[in-house]
Amino acid sequence: MSQQPSKTYRVARRVYFSAAHQLRNQALTHEENLNLFGIQAATHGLGHNYILEAYIEGALNEQSAMIMPVAQLDALLKEVVTGLDHKFLNKDVPYFREKLPTTENVARYCHDFLSLLIQKYSAQKSTTEKSQSVDHPPVTLQKIRLYETEDLWVDCGPALQPEF
Amino acid sequence: MSPHQFLLTRRYKMSLVHQIPAEFVGNECSQLHGHDFKVDVVVAGMPDPVTGFLISRLELDRIVETTLLKPYREKPLHELQNKMTGEAIAARLFELLRAPSALGESCVSVNLIETRKNRFQATV
Question: How far is CA B39 from CA A76, A141, A150, in A?
Fold first, then answer.
C-alpha cells in the first residue's frame, strides 16, 4: 500500500508517574475544605499512579514510517514527568504552590509544558534536522489525557470534542 | 458544537437487566439478560480558580447518584424506559444528566460500555 505523505497521522504515547497531592484551599476552613474536596482534603494527602497520554499529529516521514521518532517523544514526555514523579505536588512543584494540584490543573501543567517542548522540537526541525539522515516533519500536540485513576481522567487541549 | 479546552470524564457502573425484541435481533440478546454497564460521564468547562475543579467530585457523584444510579437501582429498566438497547439507554442517561437540575449543558457526552465488544455514545 502506498503511503500518502500529505495525510495527517496521530500517535498516542503513554508515560507513568506517581505523586502525592492534597486538595485543601488555605483560605477556607477545615469544614469547608472537607465539604468541597472530601477525603482529598486529608491533612496527610493522597497518592495516585497517574497515566499521562500525549496525542500528537503530523505528516508521515516515508523513510521511517513515523511522524516523530518515538525515542524523542519519550524523551519529551520524560522531561515533563520528571518534575512530578515521586513528588508531593503541593510542596515540591512551584507551579502548585499557587494552584491546587487537581486533575484539571495537573493536566494543564502537563499540556502546557509538553506543548512548549513539542513547539521547540518542531522549530528545531528546520535548522538541525537537515544534517541528519531522516528528516521528520514538524508535529503538533493535539491534546493530553491525564488519568488520575482508572475511573477519572481529564483531557486538555485547544479544541476538544467528546470522544467515542 | 464549539470545542472545549477541558473535558473531565468520570466512570460509573450500573448493573442492568435488559432484553431486545427478537424481531430486531437474531441472537441471544432477545433473551432476558444483563450487563455490568460502564457509564462514562463527560463534563466540559474551565477549572474554577479557587477549587481547580471543572466540577466538585462530591457534587458530580451526588448528581449522578440521585439522577441515574439510584433510580436505575431501585426499578427494573423496563419500568423506566420502553426501549432497552444500548443506544436507548445512553440517550436516556444523557437526557437525564442534561436537565438543568442535574448537570445541564456542562454534560457533553455519555459513553455507555456494554461489553468488551460494544459501546454507545450519546452526545450533543
Answer: 33, 28, 13
pLDDT, tens digit, 9 for 90 and up, residues B60-95 = 999 999 999 999 999 999 999 999 999 999 999 999
**All 3 cell numbers of residue A131?**
544534517
Q: Test B8 with A103 for CB contact under 8 angstroms.
A: yes
Q: Where are the beta strands (DSSP E) in chain A?
A: 9-21, 46-58, 87-88, 139-149, 152-160
Q: Which domains, from first to last, does chain A contain?
A: 9-156 (3.30.479.10)
Residues of A in contact with B12 (CB under 8 A): 151
pLDDT tens digits along B101-124: 999 999 999 999 999 999 999 999
Structural domain boundaries in chain B:
7-123
Cβ contact A154–B6 (<8 Å): yes
CA distance A26 to chain B (A): 10
- CATH architecture for residues B7-123: 2-Layer Sandwich (3.30)
Beta-carbon separation of B6 and A152 below 8 A: no
